[in-house]
């Protein structure tokens, strides 16, 4: 079951060791600054190392009683005052933040922060900051936000900040391949991967068990780690060969990267910590780097991007060469293209569509440099029908209805956003989901049309490519003559009405 972002309001979180460290660190920081003492001065008075005092203030260490007594004497306060959970009148509003447990759950280190450092920043305006956190908590409860949502958002921020490229993992995957004396090849060798896990890592691989569990049959894989037994990898028998290869390579990645907090299911059912989520990402990245070699793929992409005209079949031919799923193929491109071709203003997004329904939602998205087009907005809003992703999904479903099945559909388009005039060159691949016969997906990779793209992509101005003016969602769209509009622009109309009210109030005030 998902973990609530915060415990119910009536349940107070008991003081944890981490909270005790936070409170002591915050008190020391405040008392030292009130007395205009430097870290060096206070450390000298208390007879402790500066580095150790710094770790105490950051909430990383909790000293022994004799050290606390020395610090209390150096600051002229009692031992009890220093170790008390009471924060004092000025800092008391922050006690609610500590009791909520939210600082322990959010991976602040991803953003270059420490809990104690954040609390120290809050200390100047504790009442205002406490009210702000209380507001966040109420919003989270109102919209049923879970801690998994925060952890996934933090993970996505970490990936985007690094432009989805991690040289250390790339090198680890290449070093592993060389150490095994495996040939650098575009298509994975399933037998090679399986034999390594079984013979070298001691795994038992089970291809049958998942099919016998009604509640688990849609999972791709489960990894079971016993204390004494061999690790067991349960694979869904309905997986395509490349999906199986990826899951085997990911298990190897966990081993090679020394991941201790592995996620046990694919897709993830339960997240216990950010470290667990980060470890899963790094192992998955390792698998992609091992199976889709960056040098081979970059060479093929270089030839493709040098074509004078757009050719979707040529792109599909590259995908077939590597035998990857559309999502993994495009996800790997999103890692390689910024690094090798300088196209850093880009996005990657996956749309999911339930066949026979108007339901279309974004299942995954990454944005490099800033928030770009084609991003998740409102839960019940209708994404612009002019987006290439939705065009590809419509075309794919039409082919399914006509023949009962369909090959991967590739579409490309230059999209000019009406509100901002930003233009993107977007490529979409629509395909069926492997484990859900009623669900189609479309992965799209989009590049802002700038000088870097014009230099790297020769066919960017191909006159055969459609160029369309697009919006965000129908509810927010200001395009008046849109034949594809699904619903009226209700949100846009309310925004305009509000703007007219403000203008009228301003005019009225000016006339007094």
Describe the 3D structure:
There is one protein chain. The chain is an alpha+beta fold and 512 residues long. It has three domains: 129 residues, lambda repressor-like DNA-binding domains (434 Repressor (Amino-terminal Domain)); 131 residues, Arc Repressor Mutant, subunit A (Orthogonal Bundle); 171 residues. It is built from 21 helices and ten strands. Strands 6-5-9-8-7-10 form a six-stranded mixed β-sheet. The chain has a four-stranded mixed β-sheet with strand order 1-3-2-4, covered by helices on one side. A hairpin with a 5-residue loop joins β5 and β6. It is globular, with a radius of gyration of 27 Å.
Shape: globular
Count of discrete structural domains: 3
What's the number of extended β-strand segments? 10
Roughly how much helix do the residues carry, as a percent range? 40-55%
Mean pLDDT score: 83
* Total number of helices: 21
Strand order of the largest sheet: 6-5-9-8-7-10
Gyration radius (Cα, Å) is 27 Å
- Which blocks of ≥5 consecutive residues have pLDDT under 50? 1-15
What share of the residues does DSSP label as strand, in percent? 5-15%
The span between the termini is 60 Å
Q: Give the helix/strand class.
A: alpha+beta
Summarize the structure.
This protein has about 500 residues and is of the alpha+beta class.
List the topology elements.
Layout: H1 17-34, H2 39-46, H3 50-57, H4 65-75, H5 79-83, H6 88-91, H7 95-100, H8 102-105, H9 115-122, H10 126-142, H11 147-161, H12 167-180, H13 190-200, E1 204-206, E2 221-224, E3 232-235, H14 241-256, E4 265-266, H15 274-291, H16 294-305, H17 312-322, H18 326-341, E5 346-354, E6 360-368, H19 388-403, E7 409-417, E8 423-432, E9 439-448, H20 451-456, E10 467-470, H21 490-511
Parallel strand pairs: 1-3, 7-10
Antiparallel strand pairs: 2-3, 2-4, 5-6, 5-9, 7-8, 8-9
Helix pairs in contact: 1-9, 2-4, 12-15, 13-14, 14-15, 16-18
């Amino acid at each position: 079951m998902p973990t609530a972002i915060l415990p119910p309001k009536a349940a107070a979180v008991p003081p944890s060791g981490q909270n005790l460290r936070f409170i002591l660190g915050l008190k020391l920081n405040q008392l030292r600054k009130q007395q205009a003492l430097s870290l060096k001065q206070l450390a000298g008075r208390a007879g402790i190392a500066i580095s150790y005092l710094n770790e105490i203030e950051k909430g990383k260490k909790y000293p022994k009683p004799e050290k606390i007594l020395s610090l209390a004497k150096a600051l002229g306060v009692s031992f009890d005052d220093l170790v008390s959970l009471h924060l004092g009148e000025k800092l008391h509003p922050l006690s609610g933040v500590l009791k909520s447990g939210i600082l322990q759950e959010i991976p602040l280190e991803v953003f270059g922060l420490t809990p104690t450092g954040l609390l120290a920043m809050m200390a100047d305006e504790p009442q205002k900051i406490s009210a702000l956190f209380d507001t966040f908590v109420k919003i989270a409860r109102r919209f049923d936000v879970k801690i998994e949502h925060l952890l996934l958002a933090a993970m996505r921020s970490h990936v985007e900040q690094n432009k989805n490229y991690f040289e250390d993992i790339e090198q680890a995957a290449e070093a592993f391949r060389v150490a095994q004396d495996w040939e650098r090849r575009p298509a994975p060798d399933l037998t090679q991967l399986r034999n390594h896990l079984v013979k070298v890592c001691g795994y038992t691989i089970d291809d049958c068990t998942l099919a016998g569990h009604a509640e688990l049959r849609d999972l791709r894989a489960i990894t079971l780690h016993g204390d004494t037994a061999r690790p067991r990898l349960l694979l869904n028998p309905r997986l395509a060969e490349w999906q199986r290869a990826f899951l085997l390579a990911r298990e190897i990645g966990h081993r090679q990267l020394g991941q201790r907090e592995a996620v046990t299911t694919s897709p993830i059912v339960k997240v216990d910590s950010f470290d667990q989520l980060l470890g899963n990402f790094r192992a998955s990245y390792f698998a992609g780097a091992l199976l889709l070699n960056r040098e081979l793929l970059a060479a093929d992409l270089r030839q493709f991007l040098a074509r004078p005209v757009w050719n979707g079949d040529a792109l599909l031919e590259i995908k077939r060469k590597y035998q990857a799923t559309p999502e993994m193929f495009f996800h790997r491109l999103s890692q390689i293209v910024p690094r090798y071709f300088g196209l850093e203003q880009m996005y990657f997004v996956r749309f999911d569509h339930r066949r026979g329904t108007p339901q279309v939602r974004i299942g995954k998205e990454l944005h490099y440099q800033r928030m770009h087009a084609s991003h998740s907005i409102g839960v019940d809003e209708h994404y612009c029908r002019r987006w290439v992703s939705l065009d590809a999904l419509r075309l794919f479903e039409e082919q399914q209805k006509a023949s009962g099945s369909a090959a991967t559909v590739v579409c490309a388009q230059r999209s000019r956003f009406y509100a901002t005039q930003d233009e993107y060159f977007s490529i979409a691949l629509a395909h069926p989901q492997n484990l859900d016969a009623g669900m189609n997906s479309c992965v799209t990779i989009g590049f802002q049309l700038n000088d870097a793209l014009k230099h790297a992509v020769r066919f960017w101005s191909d006159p055969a490519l459609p160029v369309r003016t697009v919006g965000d969602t129908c509810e927010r769209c200001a395009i008046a003559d849109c034949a594809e509009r699904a619903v009226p622009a209700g949100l846009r109309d309310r925004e305009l009405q509000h703007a007219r009210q403000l203008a009228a109030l301003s005019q009225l005030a000016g006339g007094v």
